[in-house]
Amino acid sequence: MLEEGISKVLITEKEIEKIVHRLGAEITEYYKDKEADLLVVGLLKGSFVFMADLIRQIKLPLQVDFMTVSSYGSGTESSGEVRIDKDLRGPVEGKNVLMVEDIIDTGRTLNRVLELIESRNPQSLLTCTFVDKPSRRIEEVEIAFSGQQIPDEYVCGYGLDFDQRYRNLPYIGVLDPSKG
Ligand code: IMP
Ligand code: MG
What we know:
The chain is an alpha/beta fold.
């Protein structure tokens, strides 16, 4: 049974598990011989479900931090002006920072955040996203670890919301266009 307002399932719970498992293995392999501390940074709120699953598939010592940003925008598109609502708890200088996003759409939000973090002199700075909508890209973004590319549809679940709802769905579903 589908949740009301969701027209179809795009990524099932089983598929999510596989994707996260693969990403965890890729990330573990990449950082396993790096000396600096690994700091995994989740962008709230969307990434919190993915973060919880992902960090348990990274088989290395790591630290976790979160940041909340809001991008002003009209409707469902971000403007590229990003406000920091909650900054990181600690410094990133000298650390290997891995930014974790739920979805990369236009690329604007992430690019502004990356510029800010970069200015604080991390040892390295890479990005992991659960889903990627490349057809909507306005600014180029480098994604080191990508879960799955999806078509240009508004998706919800697994942390992603529409109007703060649907974050608790265990799958990624497409929002019924009549709702969006
Ligand atoms: P960007 O700056 O356009 O890349 O926007 C990225 C942010 O917009 C993400 O972190 C999401 O919070 C939100 N977003 C973009 N597309 C979707 C979607 O299909 N469903 C839910 N949120 C989305
Ligand atoms: Mg969001």
